[in-house]
Specification:
The complex is a heterodimer of chains A (756) and B (331).
Chain A lengths: L1 H17 L1 H4 L2 H16 L9 H22 L6 H18 L11 H20 L8 H24 L7 H13 L7 H20 L7 H21 L4 H7 L11 H10 L5 E7 L7 E6 L34 E11 L6 E2 L5 E5 L6 E2 L6 E2 L9 E10 L2 H6 L19 H10 L6 H13 L4 E2 L3 H4 L7 H10 L1 E2 L1 H14 L4 E7 L3 E3 L7 E5 L3 E9 L3 E4 L55 H43 L5 H14 L10 H9 L6 H19 L11 H14 L3 H9 L2 H4 L11
Parallel strand pairs in A: 9-10
Antiparallel strand pairs in A: 1-3, 1-13, 2-11, 3-8, 4-7, 5-8, 6-7, 11-14, 12-13, 14-15
Helix pairs in contact in A: 3-4, 3-7, 3-8, 3-9, 4-5, 4-7, 5-7, 6-7, 7-8, 8-9, 8-10, 8-19, 9-10, 10-19, 14-17, 14-18, 15-18, 17-18, 19-20, 19-23, 20-22, 20-23, 21-22, 22-23
Chain B lengths: L9 H18 L4 H12 L4 E4 L6 H11 E2 L2 E5 L7 H4 E6 L4 E6 L6 E5 L6 H13 L1 E4 L2 E4 L5 E6 L12 H4 L4 E3 L6 H10 L5 H4 L4 E2 H12 L5 H16 L3 E3 L3 H17 L7 H12 L4 E2 L13 H13 L11
Parallel strand pairs in B: 1-9, 1-10, 2-11, 3-6, 6-9
Antiparallel strand pairs in B: 4-5, 7-8, 12-13
Helix pairs in contact in B: 1-2, 1-3, 2-11, 9-11, 10-11, 11-12, 12-13
The chains are: A alpha+beta (756), B alpha/beta (331).
Chain lengths: 756, 331
């Protein structure tokens, strides 16, 4: 009575034709579209506006739509290729239509354009605070990131037919804000993502005619989601802490930069703050603000006197600078990223600052540039400055004279005796202010002192004020703020006008494509240093902090003419400079984070990628492992004779499902046997084995309960039959069958419409 | 229902069945499916409805079955003027014994061939059909049991033909299986010409099994095992026919019963001692096809020629019904 079976097959084929539209999987694609729409919406904590979202949705629609179209046209096998081409064409058209043939086919110029876009995007990402403006380069990077994820989701849902795993790309998108500094994961987006994912699971399961098998799908899904939640927390990064503490984008806020400075330095992640180039390709320090009132317990920045007429287009030459002092005109271009500071990072002394967006005014005493209304974030400006390069002789000539007008910078409250004592000891035997300054600097740079960002906190003297300076001189461990305030305070006890500066050390250069070097400044470059006043020259910076920054030529005892440190308290190697500042170009920053923003930036970019890759690897190996264990357990059960024919049957069906044969729950064992016998790779012995297993299972399931078959002999049949089935599939398909065994998710067989 | 339960083994059964089928095949060329279904009906104690255009061998099949089994056979040619008593028999006054004596009608036989049943009036039709269901005849207050085994093989021309009274649904439900012969294929038709040239092959057909042996075979069929899984599967299909939106009338409980009984016979014919879901699948259309009525929007009615849409619906339902393979088993 074969005709009944044959007729049924014919009928099924008929049904398939009438449900051609169903076969396109448009419903699943629609749910995926919604899922991505919701999940991408979660990126709103990182990006401003909705343009980027619309653009991403265009990509999602292109990928999913082309997949649907391909399946509709009967090109189901090729849908990943079609989707990939459609995605590539969309990206090319959007970003490089003018470089491409017919606006679609990429050329060499397109590649160059893409490279430029990538470089631009790195800058854009580095400089912008969150939420960032999704400019064209960022949209390009988003296309490169989101597009493949949608492709993966599409392939998982249709080509691999494991819709449950689409949770992985969704979670990857969902994770991005969690792994990005300062961007928070949106709880709403999480609920939305999870809900749409569950919807997808329910829908794909229902189309199989039953909710059975939902449990394993849910299990895989929840592993994906839970993994997504746990992963950010498990990553070796303190970014989580920053996000949690709601530090916001500010590195130096207006409250008290000194307190923040310590915190920022102790942070293990260093985040880009700004970058600059100079005409001479030489780096310089950038000042934010100065501290000159040492009388308070906690030192704070000076309130700048902001005269509305002091627009920084032109700033006169600093007072007290004599004509014979060599001054090098420098032009720099500074691009401020994530720096919420009311002070502008500028070198000293400036002569003009142009192309500013905000309302910035300069202070005539300190030559700092500040604003009452704007923050430095996002400013890109050109700054002209005079780099003062006094010779040691000129500095010597200043002697010990303190000119009128700077006496204020000598004022000290009652200071602990140790400060004046140490200053005297360190400068014993030298006369001029210049010699004393170098001696103080070298004393603080000597081996007596230790650079530590943690000790002051641990021992309770992390702070400012003359008392703290006293403690620092006893304990001799601290970071820049301690070294700078110690030198400034000691200088005042010796009659040298001094003030402290808060700003950034020179940063590190990158290998930029052009001739000019780009110097990148990160939070690790936050710095403090003293400036001392010399008659005829003005304010001159020193670098007393060990292992940080760069010694100016006039303060480097290694340079001819600069007085060697001869302070009595300094022993041995005290005088040796720790920085080879004589070299042109910047010194490497001291942080342990690597030598440049690019490396650190890459590391930061790598975190989410590595996490996602790890997640994918673990999750993709998990099914293979479970399947292998199940197979072994089944075969062992059969060999020991404990198992039933049903066990052999289950294993046979599972293998068939793994290799891509669509077995339905509505099939009778006999029909299944018939199909398996016709499967690719079947040998005669394989066919016989399949028939024996089928007969055994029929007898066991439908025969009289007393007639149980002996299952022991079925172990070999199972081995033969499954080997045949596996040999019937080729390399990539076999890999997929091993890595993602369909049988785990889809033990019921799968959507009949997809088998055509 | 005192049926002698035969102690016949499945192998003997199988060889007898093969002999019967082989014999009938010499008469009806190339219609093995129809022959098997007919034998299935006989062994499952059901009644067979053969529906087709004239001249394709409906009566020939019925008579061939009758000849193959050594049992009593009666043939009734249904005509518009046939009366119910022409079937059941009448009570005649016996003057010698001074009482009414029952003269059994043609229905009193193991195998009753009702030719062109739809040509008789409904009243006459129902006389036969009631006897089919009840296995006995009541005439003038007396009840007369019919022979055991008792099988009616009715032939019917398609309803469109002139002068016919199509069987109503309730009557069709009493037939276990409906088959339609269909035209023979070319080779079979040529063979037929050759074999009929000299004499009717029917004459050469000799009984293969005795009535006793047939009774034993029927007893064996009754003892064929039906697992709970198969019962569940059958009921699921029946239930689905009642739910399906393409069907106006679903399968009756009697249809479910007939389906399982026919499946038992089919399993035995296949040499198996238990019923498989495949038996149910294969018999779903022959057993259910004439009982279901399509909803108005589905083209076609109950006749064999227009039944293809009904068959499609049944195939769809069978194809969509999961085969139960035991508790907790999803594979």
């Amino acid at each position: 009575m074969v005709w009944a079976v044959r007729m049924r097959d014919l009928l099924k084929r008929d049904l398939l034709n009438t449900v051609r539209w169903e076969r396109t999987g448009w419903r699943t694609s629609g749910i995926l579209l919604v899922a991505f729409a919701v999940t991408l919406g979660g990126l709103h904590t990182m990006l401003e506006g909705v343009g980027w979202w619309l653009w991403c949705m265009v990509l999602v629609v292109v990928v999913l739509g082309s997949g649907v179209a391909a399946r509709w046209a009967g090109l189901g096998r090729w849908s990943p290729l079609v989707s990939t081409l459609a995605l590539a064409a969309t990206i090319v058209t959007r970003f490089a239509a003018d470089t491409a043939w017919l606006g679609v086919i990429p050329t060499g110029d397109t590649i160059l354009r893409f490279r430029t876009l990538l470089v631009d995007a790195t800058y854009s990402i580095t400089w912008q605070s969150t939420p960032a403006n999704a400019d064209v380069p960022i949209q390009f990077v988003m296309a490169l990131g989101i597009g493949p994820l949608v492709l993966i989701a599409e392939a998982l849902a249709f080509s691999v037919r494991l819709p449950a795993l689409t949770g992985i790309p969704l979670v990857a998108v969902f994770l991005v804000p969690g792994l990005t500094p300062d961007a928070e994961t949106s709880g709403l987006a999480f609920i939305g993502t999870a809900a749409s994912y569950l919807w997808l699971l329910m829908s794909t399961q229902r189309s199989l005619g039953s909710y059975r098998g939902l449990a394993p799908a849910l299990a895989i899904g929840s592993i994906a989601v839970i993994g997504g939640l746990v992963l950010p927390a498990a990553l070796p990064s303190t970014e989580q802490g920053i996000t949690a503490s709601e530090a916001g984008p500010s590195v130096v806020t207006g409250v008290n930069p000194i307190v923040r400075l310590g915190e920022d330095l102790r942070r293990t992640d260093d985040r880009p703050v700004l970058s600059y180039t100079t005409a001479s390709n030489k780096p310089y320090y950038l000042r934010l603000t100065t501290i000159s009132d040492f009388s308070q317990d906690g030192w704070g920045p000076e309130q700048p006197v902001l005269d509305r007429s002091n627009r920084p287009h032109t700033i006169p030459r600093p007072s007290g600078l004599q004509a014979d002092v060599r001054v090098r005109e420098e032009v720099g271009f500074i691009s401020v990223g994530n720096l919420a500071s009311p002070w502008l990072p500028v070198p000293y002394p400036i002569s003009s600052v142009t192309q500013l967006n905000g309302d910035w005014l300069w202070d005539k005493d300190t030559l700092t540039v500040a604003s009452n209304t704007d923050l430095a974030i996002g400013e890109n400006f050109t700054v002209r400055s005079h780099v003062i390069e006094p010779t040691p002789e000129q500095l010597q000539r200043a002697g010990t004279t303190v000119p009128d007008g700077v006496e204020d910078y000598l004022e000290l409250p009652a200071v602990p005796a140790i400060i004046a004592d140490t200053a005297r000891e360190a400068t014993a035997g030298v006369d001029t202010n210049y010699e004393k300054a170098v001696a103080l600097q070298q004393y603080l740079r000597s081996a007596l002192f230790r650079y530590s960002e943690q000790t002051p906190v641990a021992e309770g003297y992390d702070g400012t004020g003359v008392d703290m300076v006293g403690v620092f001189l006893e304990r001799r461990a601290g970071y820049c703020i301690h070294f700078a305030s110690a030198m400034a305070t000691m200088a005042r006890t010796l009659g040298i006008p001094s003030r402290m500066v808060i700003g950034f050390q020179q940063g590190s250069s990158t290998n930029s494509p052009g001739d000019s070097k780009i110097f990148e400044v990160t939070t690790d470059d936050l710095h403090s240093w003293p400036e001392l006043y010399f008659e005829g020259i003005g304010w001159v910076a020193f670098e007393p902090t060990q292992s940080r920054g760069r010694l100016p030529d006039y303060a480097n005892p290694g340079i001819a003419g600069v007085p060697a440190a001869i302070g009595g308290a300094i022993s041995g190697n005290a005088g040796a400079p720790r920085d080879d500042s004589g070299l042109d170009g910047p010194a490497a920053p001291s942080g342990s984070q690597g030598s440049g923003w690019f490396v650190s930036g890459q590391w930061r970019l790598l975190l989410p990628i590595a996490g996602a890759v790890l997640l994918v690897i673990v999750l993709s190996l998990l099914p293979a492992g479970v399947r292998m264990l199940r197979h072994r357990r089944n075969v062992a059960g059969l060999r020991s004779g404990r198992g039933s024919a049903m066990l052999a049957w289950r294993e046979l069906r599972a293998t068939a499902t793994d290799v891509g044969l669509a077995l339905r729950r509505t099939e009778t064992p006999r029909e299944t046997v018939e199909r398996l016998r016709r499967a690719r790779g079947m040998t005669q012995s394989g066919r016989d084995a399949v028939s024996r297993i089928g007969a055994a299972v029929e007898r066991e399931r439908f025969g009289r309960p007393s007639e149980l078959a002996d299952s022991g002999s079925l172990a070999d049949d199972v081995a033969v039959a499954t080997a045949c089935l596996r040999s019937g599939i080729a390399g990539p398909e076999r890999l997929r069958a091993t890595l993602w065994p369909n049988s785990l998710v889809n033990r019921n067989g799968r959507l009949a419409a997809r088998t055509g | 229902m005192t049926m002698a339960t035969g102690t016949m083994g499945i192998d003997t059964f199988h060889s007898f069945a093969a002999d019967i089928i082989g014999g009938i095949e010499t008469v009806i060329d190339g219609k093995r499916d129809a022959i098997e279904l007919a034998l299935t009906t006989l062994l499952a104690e059901g009644h067979l409805l053969i529906e087709d255009v004239p001249g394709v061998g409906k009566t020939m099949l019925a008579r061939a079955i009758a000849r193959s089994v050594d049992c009593t056979v009666n043939r009734i040619q249904f005509t518009p003027d046939l009366l119910p008593s022409d079937i059941t028999g009448v009570s005649v006054y016996n003057q010698a014994e001074m009482e009414f004596q029952f003269k059994p009608g043609p229905v009193f036989a193991n195998l009753v061939i009702g030719d062109e049943i739809n040509r008789a009036s409904p009243k006459t039709q129902s006389a036969l059909l009631e006897s089919m269901e009840e296995g006995q005849i009541s005439v003038d207050g007396a009840t007369y049991p019919l022979a055991r085994p008792f099988t009616v093989v009715a032939t019917q021309n398609p309803v469109e033909m002139e002068g016919t009274y199509p069987l109503p649904e309730a009557q069709r439900d009493r037939f276990m299986i409906r088959i339609s012969m269909g035209y023979p294929d070319e080779a079979a038709e040529v063979t037929m010409l050759r074999t009929r040239e000299t004499s009717s092959p029917l004459d050469r057909l000799t009984p293969v099994v005795t009535l006793e042996q047939l009774t034993s075979m029927i007893g064996l069929v009754r003892n064929i095992y039906v697992s709970p899984a198969v019962e569940q599967y059958t009921v699921a299909i029946s239930q689905e026919t009642r739910r399906d939106r393409d069907l106006r009338l679903g399968a009756s409980p009697r249809a479910t019963l007939h389906l399982v009984r026919a499946a038992k016979a089919r399993a035995a014919l296949d040499g198996r001692e238990f019923v498989l879901p495949d038996d149910i699948d294969a018999l779903a259309v022959p057993v259910l096809g004439h009982r279901l009525i399509a909803a108005a929007r589905v083209a076609g009615g109950a006749s064999a020629f227009q039944a293809s849409s009904i068959a499609d619906i049944i195939h769809r339902i069978v194809a969509a019904t999961p085969v139960p393979l035991g508790a907790g088993e999803s594979a």
